Amino acid sequence: MWAGRSSAQVLAAYKRLLPWSLRIIIKQFPSCPRIIYGENKGSVEIMRKDLNDARDLHGQAESAAAVWKGHVMDRRKKALTDYRKLQAFFAEEEERFLQEADKEEGSPEDEDADPAERFGSLLQAVSELERRHRNLGLSMLLQVGTASCPVPRGGRRGSTGTWRASEQPPGSCLGLNLRND
Predict the structure, then answer these.
(1) Of 25, 80, 86, 172, which is least packed with CB atoms within 10 Å of its CB?
(2) Which domain holds residue 150?
(3) What mean pLDDT is reported for the chain?
(4) Rounded-to-integer distance, Cα 144 and Cα 137, Å
């Protein structure tokens, strides 16, 4: 392949190749190490500089990842705290509701009252929590947007089928259907 070519032509061809080819040139032409040594010295300095830059960038990336992990962990901790508060609130509301139901068991007023008005604060808390923590996986804990929620096949709310998570009525994650559709 290199037959009939001078060593300068071969050297020029090798220089056009990748930087690691300089080692091959030195092995092939031991009489020319001075010419190559100057270039090799400069490329070694450049490689050292690039390596130091890469180490600096790696350190910056690690510190940024640690900061981001701390941020995510703080958000998860806050979401879990909010979920526990809401869970305690639900338990209190359920207990209060059961006590009210025991007191007024046969009262005709219970059938006339709108359930959305009776549980307004509960539904408001659920919808607020769903809105605030939808991206933190809390919607899965509250079973919002799962297969148990209806999604209409026709795409309209009045059609037969099930609800989409975005069109889901408030409180439906609790198994309550408070709509009068």
Answers:
(1) 80
(2) 143-168
(3) 67
(4) 10
Burial of 76 (0-12, 13-18, 19+ CB in 10 A): middle
Q: Is residue 164 part of a domain?
A: yes
DSSP summary character for residue 157:
T
Instruction: Determine the distance from the C-alpha atom of residue 139 to the mean position of all C-alpha atoms in its chain, rounded to a whole number.
Output: 14
Residue 109 is which amino acid?
E
Q: How many domains does the chain have?
A: 1
Decide: 130 and 142 in contact? Cβ < 8 Å: yes
The encoded tokens of residue 98 equal 């059961």
> Which residues are CB-neighbours of 101 under 8 A, at least 6 positions away?
110
The 10s digit of each residue's pLDDT in 23-75 is 555 555 555 545 545 556 677 888 888 888 999 999 999 999 999 999 999 99
pTM over 0.85: no
Dihedral sign computed on CA atoms, order 50, 52, 54, 57: negative
Q: Evaluate whether residue 160 is within a structural domain.
A: yes
pLDDT above 60 for 14: no
**For the ranges 2-6, 147-151, 168-172, the one whose mean pLDDT is highest:** 2-6
Residue type, 133: H
Query: Do the domain assignments include residue 162?
Result: yes
